[in-house]
Write a structure and sequence with these properties.
Blueprint (H helix, E strand, L loop, with lengths): L1 H10 L2 H15 L4 H17 L3 E10 L4 E2 L2 E2 L3 E3 L3 E7 L8 E4 L19 E7 H5 L8 E3 L10 H7 L4 E4 L19 H4 L24 E4 L2 H13 L2 E7 L2 E3 L1 E10 L6 E5 L7 H23 L9 E6 L4 H10 L7 E7 L10 E5 L9 H12 L6 E4 L5 H4 L10 E7 L16 H19 L6 H28 L9 H21 L11 H21 L9 H10 L3 E4 L27 H7 L2 E5 H12 L5 H16 L3 E3 L5
Parallel strand pairs: 7-8, 8-9, 9-10, 14-15, 14-16, 16-19, 17-18
Antiparallel strand pairs: 1-13, 2-3, 4-12, 5-6, 5-11, 7-11, 13-15, 17-19, 20-21, 20-22
Length: 656
């Protein structure tokens, strides 16, 4: 793999990669539906010029009411102007125009609409003043510095009669967010305008048909601080101009294939409609350049002939992919071997690392082993890549959900200097770093689509070695838990040891068996037996170590375990519950971990009707190497009852 990676570095056309990234970024910058149609058309032409076949632009409805896998499509939105000008303030603003769509499109929050009476003068109050009793009727509410404008504040201000909001800060905590480094401390970021991509009244990311009209502006943290100070000193008024329009329209998806010998497809996913250079113009342009490079390398006999078909899919994050997945087949594993998501690629920060997410246990994929092998061989002595063995879900890998069935891996550049703001321009793109990221992703893609029956025995042999190492990693984690007395309240320690190790064994066996996609006749019985024998040896060693601490539960924990073991659930809908459209709007509430970003997604993914709620919670702990508190267990069980009430889940036994 290392040699293929080096060949990729030689073949990637960095000038074309840069130009196409820049072109796409500029097309998407207006963040309107018209701009999105233009970017989709550009990608369609790029695919045709790059040798893709069966190229299509599929227009899904953007009507705010059509739903795919509980993701309700956004309304189309267009605007050409949006301006906020201070007209009264005790503090003088050198430039009274504090937000202007023409200066930067991020200034006007997507979904904003023209006011019923036209452009008008309004009073501005702070969120703190509103919460302290100041009437918000007819005002714009300036959010506090730590308020996420997509986290319920909009519904609150509209309920109080406000016209909308102003977001004047970076509301993400740079000390805890792995995507970002040193955001607040960078003076340049203090003057950035943040792109607010999900300012809605509820769980939904985008404005839907039953969301109320509003007007919203995004201003820099520096301007936000000054405006907040002005509001605290006296009355502040501003003149609003906005011509935003919501309407029924379309949300395009762009796709095309490069056929292999087999019609089974490897999907390369890179989302459109996020108007930032590295998020995700680099991903889309990188996907196209990777595909071109693979074809050149095959033609030059650098790599073998293509066995599996490449399919690229460019559309909106989560919503467009849910629509595309449902249009093709509800269970994608029937015609797709797996996928890679290329989003937020590493692009040139000092100290930036590439985080490699494997597909999680419920969607076994032999491509995981190839990816681990690649990281080991090509990450280099500086170890720029960090591997996450049990992967996850989230907005880029939610198709891993077994009700959909597409095992998806993801290479993510974390610890970014800039995230979702106007400073994320082409100046932040280090083309050499981007080229290396494309080479790493491309090497994995090439290794997957060219794997044939002749090469499979060697791949299985390496997979066995990796699976063996995974068993020993879990063994060492359990030893650490024993030595530090870190035990789950969900099972006694002795039983937990055996079940944890057997779950790891099952994960490795299922992943190895998935090689039968390449060669249905391959015999892996020897390797599977060896893994089982090694697991029994490790279990025996662990049980000897922990005999003295067996049966450590108190009565409260024992009662909890008995109760959870009596409850069984099954999934009733395809895809993770997301916009909660089966639930009346006034009854919707956030799900734990925002549904797709943590343990709750793992609980639902493993829910097949045969496992008790106790077992589901245990498996989520094992996959995340975590121990749940009583509070988290209660949060998860209450959310399961909530989803069961509204038909997302079905109980298979009475709750006691």
């Amino acid at each position: 793999m290392k040699q293929i990676y080096q060949n990729f570095l030689d073949y990637v056309d960095e000038n074309k990669l840069y130009r196409e990234t820049e072109k796409l970024w500029m097309l998407e910058l207006p963040q309107t539906s018209k701009a999105f149609a233009n970017s989709a058309a550009y990608c369609y032409e790029l695919l045709k010029k790059s040798g893709f076949l069966q190229c299509e632009v599929i227009n899904f409805p953007a009507d705010g009411k059509t739903s795919y896998q509980d993701k309700r499509m956004p309304l189309a939105w267009n605007a050409s102007s949006g301006k906020l000008t201070i007209t009264q303030s005790k503090i003088v603003f050198d430039d009274p125009v504090i937000a202007d769509y023409h200066r930067h499109p991020f200034s006007l929050i997507r979904g904003s609409v023209a006011l019923p009476g036209g452009n008008t003068n309004v009073r501005i109050i702070t969120e703190h003043q509103m919460n302290s009793g100041t009437s918000a009727k007819g005002t714009l509410v300036l959010c506090e510095a730590d308020t996420n404008p997509g986290n319920g504040i909009l519904a609150t201000v509209l309920d109080k009669g406000a016209l909308g909001i102003i977001s004047g800060a970076d509301y993400r905590d740079d000390t805890s967010d792995p995507f970002i480094i040193e955001k607040i401390s960078h003076p340049a970021v203090n003057d950035a305008i943040y792109w607010i991509n999900n300012c809605t009244e509820g769980n939904n990311w985008h404005v839907q048909i039953d969301d109320r009209p509003f007007v919203g502006f995004s201003i820099s943290p520096r301007t936000g601080g000054k405006l907040r100070e002005a509001c605290n000193q006296g009355e502040v008024c501003a003149f609003i101009e906005c011509d935003g329009i919501r309407s029924e329209g379309v949300l395009p998806a762009v796709t095309g294939i490069i056929p292999g010998k087999s019609p089974q497809e490897l999907w390369i996913l890179a989302h459109l409609y996020e108007p930032l250079s590295d998020d995700n113009s680099t991903g889309v342009a990188g996907t196209i350049e990777i595909s071109r490079t693979i074809q050149r390398m095959i033609a030059d006999k650098i790599i073998p002939e293509q066995e599996f078909t490449i399919r690229v899919v460019f559309t909106s994050e989560v919503y467009g992919y849910a629509a595309f997945a449902e249009r093709n087949k509800k269970f994608l594993k029937d015609n797709a071997i797996g996928a890679i998501n290329i989003d937020s690629m590493i692009s040139g920060n000092p100290g930036q690392r590439l985080h490699v997410m494997l597909s999680p246990p419920p969607t076994p994929f032999w491509g995981n082993y190839l990816l681990e092998n690649l990281v080991e061989e090509c990450s280099g002595k500086n170890n720029i890549a960090t591997l996450h063995e049990n992967g996850g879900y989230g907005d880029d890998t939610f198709l891993n959900d077994p009700t959909i069935g597409l095992p998806t891996v993801w290479m993510l550049g974390k610890h970014k200097k800039y995230w979702h703001n106007s400073k994320l321009t082409m100046e932040t793109i280090d083309i050499g770093t981007l080229k290396r990221a494309c080479a790493l992703a491309g090497t994995w893609i090439a290794s997957v689509i060219t794997l044939n029956k002749t090469m499979t025995p060697n791949a299985v042999r390496k997979a066995y070695s990796i699976g063996y190492s995974h068993l020993h990693k879990e063994y060492r984690r359990i030893i650490t838990d024993i030595e530090t007395a870190r035990y789950s309240v969900l099972s006694d320690s002795m039983k937990n040891i055996r079940e944890r190790m057997e779950y790891q064994l099952k994960t490795e066996q299922n992943r190895m068996i998935s090689f039968q996609t390449v060669d249905p006749d391959i015999d892996m019985s020897e390797y599977l037996t060896l893994l089982k024998k090694e697991t029994e040896i490790l279990i025996s060693n662990l049980e000897k170590m922990s005999l003295e601490i067996s049966g450590s539960h108190n009565n409260e924990d024992e009662n909890l375990v008995r109760s959870l073991s009596k409850h069984f659930y099954t999934r009733e809908t395809t895809g993770f519950p997301f916009d909660l459209i089966k639930i009346p709007k006034h009854m919707r509430k956030p799900l734990p971990d925002n549904m797709i970003y943590g343990s709750f997604a793992r609980i639902l993914s493993n829910m097949d009707g045969t496992k008790s709620l106790l077992r589901l919670l245990q498996e989520a702990e094992w996959e995340e190497h975590d121990v749940f508190t009583h509070e988290r267990i209660k949060e998860y069980t209450q959310a399961i009852e909530y989803l069961t009430k509204y038909g997302y889940l079905k109980t298979l036994s009475a709750c006691l």
